[in-house]
Design a protein that fits this description.
Distance between the termini: 30 Å
Strand content: over 45%
Structural class: mainly beta
Order of helices and strands: EEEEEEEEEEEEE
Radius of gyration: 12 Å
Shape: globular
Helix content: under 10%
Largest sheet: 11 strands, parallel
Number of strands: 13
Number of helices: 0
């Protein structure tokens, strides 16, 4: 989509690919294994058990073209692909994070 996307129900998926929009996906019961995004809009995403920033279909990592990003999880967050965004990482256990793909951020609040 090219517009704004919000959610009213939980998202459950092995792979979640987000393209061309503004995404506010902060449902407390989301259960996504891998997330990837290619867009110029912001991303807010919450997951209830941990997730990976990786590859979904042909999309690698998360790129927002400078838009803000917020990743929230009560579990482990791993990264195997790059994140390029204005970045805020919050409410996950940083000791469990494995940042392998590189983070490029305009401002970083961890």
């Amino acid at each position: 989509t090219a517009g704004s996307v919000t959610q009213t129900q939980a998202i459950g998926a092995a792979g979640l690919e987000l393209l061309n929009g503004n995404f506010d996906l902060r449902g407390a019961n989301n259960a996504v294994t891998t997330i990837a995004m290619a867009s110029s809009g912001p991303l807010s995403f919450q997951d209830n058990a941990g997730f990976a920033v990786g590859t979904v279909n042909a999309t690698n990592g998360i790129s927002t073209g400078g838009g803000n990003i917020q990743l929230i999880s009560t579990g482990t967050v791993t990264q195997t692909q790059a994140i390029s965004a204005a970045l805020k990482i919050g409410q996950h256990r940083c000791a469990d994070c494995a940042h392998r793909g590189g983070i490029m951020a305009f401002s970083c609040n961890i």
